[in-house]
Task: structure prediction
Amino acid sequence: MEMKKLSRKSQGHIEVILSFALFIGAVLFIFLFINPSFKDEDKTDIEQTTDKIITNISREIGKLSIISSSGCYDYNDDYGISYVETKNDDEFIIYFSDEEGTFNNTLPSIDDNCLDYNTGVFSEEEIIVYDEILDFINRYESDYQQLKEDIEISDDFTFEIKDINGQLKLSVNRNIPSNVNVNSIEFPIRVIDKDGVIYEFIFNIRVWHI
Result:
């Protein structure tokens, strides 16, 4: 089959379309990746503020699982300076932290003579720590402006932590001016306490700028 060549007029139309597409692509690239103000707007004030608060009340927590039918175990490695043991049937879960005082430092089932147990893989993850929330609330109530400087935020904020049934557990409160636009988001969080108990909570934060 013989291929027909495009006319000069058709070629001109295609060139215009391609040029326009390249122009639009360049404009989008500038706004999305080069313009810093656009990038700041893309991540809202409430997201930035929330990220810094969650980071401030979270810690790197280690977790070690041990299966023991004899009710005891032993280990030689030092996984952290603060630790706590939890138990579920034949499984022991030990949580560790490099921050002093994170856990109550109890390993009641450890036994140097214990032989019948299997140690799992040690893992780490960022988890919100209950006592860190309490410390954050104390700083909020005692010197709010200094706290904002410490975590490097300029916007004002309040937050509430509720259980999955909606019952209020912890909160910080501040008078919100009537003439400001308030942004709010809500999402689930996991919180661990000194005894290694993990709670499923709902975190609600409100942020505004004066």
Notes: The chain has a mean pLDDT of 86. Residues 16 and 22 are 10 Å apart (CA to CA). The chain has two domains: 44-57+129-208, 60-113. Strands lie at 58-67, 82-88, 91-97, 118-119, 123-129, 156-163, 168-172, 182-192, 198-208.
